[in-house]
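Revision sheet: structure tokens.
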Amino acid sequence: MNLQSVLLSRFKNALSKIGAPENAPTPLGKSTRPEFGEYQFNGAMALAKILRQKPRDIAEKIVEAVEINDIAEKLEIAGPGFINIHLKSEWMAEQLENAIKDARLGVEKQPTQTVVVDYSSPNLAKEMHVGHLRSTIIGDAVARALEFMGHKVIRQNHMGDWGTQFGMLLAHLNDKLASNEVAETALSDLEDFYREAKVRFDNEDGFADRAREYVVKLQGGDEQCLKLWHQFIDVSVAHSEEVYEKLGVSLTRDDIMGESAYNPDLNATLSALQEKGLAVEDQGAQVVFLNELADKEGNPAVYIVQKSGGGFLYSTTDQAAIRYRCQKLNADRTLIFTDARQALHFKQTEIVARKAGFIAENQSYEHCPFGMMLGQDGKPFKTRSGSTVKLADLLDEAVERAEKLIRARADKLDGANEAGLSEVEQKEIARKVGISAVKYADLSKNRTTDYIFNWDTMLSFEGNTAPYLQYAYTRVQSIFRKAGVDPQSVNFAINLGEAQERVLAVKLLQYVESLNQLVSEATPHVLCSYLYELASCFMTFYEACPILKDGVETDKKESRLMLAAMTAKTLKSGLDLLGIDTMEKM
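Predicted:
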């Protein structure tokens, strides 16, 4: 049940009754304070000019026309024409009683679309570094949420597994294998391997020429060269899979659609652009001129699809990828997660693809840019020596720091261990807390902005962090352990008598709103904010409305246990969609 949609539907019907135009704005928002109700409808203000009436007069007509007595206990007009909506406690209680019995917590599925989600996309010539973190975890959270909302999601990991650098790498690998080294051993450290190959390419006589020959052989389909390339790719992918496992993301080897996958279609893609009159020869290269993105002097933007030497570029591969996704996979939406510096490239790519007819009018192509992870100095996050931080090393450090933090907390509590956790269990909790802290610190920030990486903040048990939410979930679970009640099987009547109970109930009913916004805008931070607000509402409720204290009436205790159970289920559901682990004990 989508509370916001239900209210909007009722008010739209009311607007049609009072003679408002069919496309009249319907601004419905959450109230900022409980005394103003739970929602506020401001349509009267927007209609004043259209209907040439005073906003307050229009508001009075809306209140009279809207059929909402089954949902709202009262509507009140405030100020010049705001309509405050006070929901019925009994109605909210009924919705929650139904939702808690539903595995989906009352969240209805959306009409199914086929959605391609392109994310992570590491370069297989090097190990994954911190620059790949945002694409990987933001894309994964969006993919999970889309699936939960009923869509057919096709994950695509557009790995960099092709290009001129592979000639250099394959020549170096061939020499290693000729010296009786095993591929896995030779490639155990991709960074060192790449560095060695680059030194040879720059300094060793004849090596650069051999590397270029390998490129030609590889692109020509030479059997021995392809065999070397497959060995390199297999070991490189295994490195990425180790990172994905540590991160707890849902990408698998089957999701890989590297640049090489589109190689067979590059000539056909170029031909299609030429036939449409889009790609034309310019100084030996094939170029699409885009007047839509002309500079101040009127010079069109240049989009090169084939170099003068006959080589193809990222632009050509991206056009071929669009043809595959839109025409073969029949994607309704394509979401691509890369850093914001590539925004112009993808804008140009979409313009060209739409002109060429690769993307149909009803198909959506969405570049979802994200900001950068910065160090404390406000510059791109690096090691102290100034080198790139390997993602695997960052995650290992996160677990180590979490383990120290959890031990320190236990010492502060005089060694108290309410959950009776073993050494193995504490290590597993540290792993979940550490990895989740890194992921949540990123996911909780607006996707489009830069953010500063801070160990102390992300590992804090206070504020909008993974440890705080994980602790909030375990705290609810501990209530049920003390009560001797299974939270999965509670089935009591809900009675919203206290103000804090109403606030918590409303927040629980708003879960679907955050999910709808997440899948619509590809913004996981919206769900993070919701879960933090929910956890905070529960803490306020728990302090004001005792559950297990002596003297609490049975019906109140049972009602509050229902609210607690629904809170735990919602927290777990939301955190699961974000790829954040929960624990029953902590």
